[in-house]
């Protein structure tokens, strides 16, 4: 009988975060436009996993990404830097891209804070309800920028989101054998890259008085 040698096969554990591009590395304060937009599209997919009730958030984010992408495709060479693209448009008297990035960064901040709360909850074993976490993230970020009607709409749709266990299953791409710790590790890497990009963008908007 032929002897069998045991082999150790290391396979990458596939989750939502391992299948998505991370936000680009910030080099000398510069963010690559194309890579930033590619990573932002993964946020659209993430929001989609929160349920149909979040369709209005998804479409808003998607719309702002497409506005920025449309501008980028007009001159990919000169618009390689995200902030430079906004500066060049501003110099020509335009502000479509500036406004699109303003609302996109606000939505990204909401996702950043939401995932940050999920990570914190996991490490502290608090097992806080995901609805509570979403509300905290919203109140910390987007609420101040929304009118009364949108604020009330959010309070309604947040009740349609999946449970935390269902969310983990969605992020594990349906593989219930995936340890939640692996999902959190991917989430942490995603949030870290997003945070670095948002720090640069927020500083850029503050320095140029583009917030309003």
Automatic annotation (TrEMBL):
Pfam families in alphabetical order: GLTP
Keyword check for Transport: yes
GO MF term set: ceramide 1-phosphate binding; ceramide 1-phosphate transfer activity
Residue intervals of the Glycolipid transfer protein domain: 31-171
GO CC entries: cytosol; membrane
Keywords (A to Z) from UniProt: Transport
Gene3D superfamilies for the chain: Glycolipid transfer protein
Protein name: Glycolipid transfer protein domain-containing protein
Organism whose genome encodes this protein: Bemisia tabaci (Sweetpotato whitefly)
Organism classification: Eukaryota, Metazoa, Ecdysozoa, Arthropoda, Hexapoda
């Amino acid at each position: 009988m032929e002897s069998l040698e045991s082999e150790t096969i290391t396979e990458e554990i596939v989750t939502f975060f391992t299948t998505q591009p991370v936000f680009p590395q910030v080099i000398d304060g510069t963010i690559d436009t194309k890579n930033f937009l590619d990573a932002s599209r993964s946020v659209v997919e993430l929001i989609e996993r929160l349920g149909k009730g979040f369709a209005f958030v998804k479409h808003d984010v998607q719309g702002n990404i497409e506005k920025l992408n449309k501008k980028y495709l007009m001159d990919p060479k000169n618009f390689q830097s995200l902030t430079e693209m906004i500066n060049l448009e501003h110099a020509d008297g335009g502000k479509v891209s500036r406004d699109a990035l303003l609302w996109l960064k606000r939505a990204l901040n909401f996702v950043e804070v939401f995932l940050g709360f999920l990570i914190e909850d996991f490490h502290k074993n608090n097992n806080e309800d995901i609805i509570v976490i979403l509300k905290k993230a919203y109140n910390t970020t987007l609420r101040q920028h929304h009118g009364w009607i949108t604020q009330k709409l959010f309070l309604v749709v947040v009740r349609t989101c999946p449970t935390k266990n269902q969310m983990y299953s969605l992020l594990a791409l349906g593989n219930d054998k995936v340890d939640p710790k692996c999902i959190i590790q991917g989430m942490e890497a995603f949030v870290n890259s997003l945070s670095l990009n948002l720090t640069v963008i927020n500083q850029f908007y503050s320095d140029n008085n583009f917030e309003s």
